[in-house]
Design a protein that fits this description.
Length: 158
């Protein structure tokens, strides 16, 4: 796939540098990689147009903001053909921060961030259970996140 994308060593260096510190200025990144800030800007714009880079976002520590419950919900669908309609309904629930279509025991797997157990109960009982197509759910509460990281992307590995 990268052949069609036509990414080179500099593109991969930019990706890795931005993964490590998305706050770095294009000028500083250019100095680090021995190119101009304008070159960095053009390369990032190209990768955005190709869909390789999909915006930027803050890495937030939810616990500091008072969101004390992180849970994972395994969702069983009545039929796998209901995935698109169920996913559209789940997207409307703001506490669901990630959703994956999966193989194995569950049809879907969702990550939920809530302020407390009462809010989690509301999401499970009042939101999820109302969605047509969901047969049942299994909820796993996270006690602690040990680490979170991006995949190291290197040109020679692709």
């Amino acid at each position: 796939m990268t052949g069609k994308l036509n990414l080179d060593k500099l593109d991969f260096q930019i990706i890795q540098a931005m993964v490590d510190n998305a706050n770095i200025s294009y000028a500083d990144l250019g100095k680090k990689l021995f190119v101009s800030g304008g070159t960095i800007h053009v390369r990032i714009k190209k990768m955005q147009e190709l869909g390789v880079v999909r915006g930027t976002k803050f890495n937030i520590d939810f616990k500091i903001l008072g969101y004390d419950v992180i849970a994972f919900i395994g969702i069983y669908l009545e039929k796998s053909s209901l995935y698109d309609s169920v996913a559209a309904q789940l997207k409307k629930i703001p506490q669901i921060v990630r959703l994956n279509y999966t193989t194995g025991n569950y049809s879907m797997f969702a990550e939920v961030v809530c302020k407390d157990i009462s809010q989690l109960k509301f999401v499970l009982h009042d939101e999820l259970q109302k969605i047509k197509g969901i047969e049942r759910t299994d909820t796993i509460i996270s006690l602690e996140e040990s680490f979170s990281r991006n995949v190291l992307v290197a040109e020679n590995e692709l």
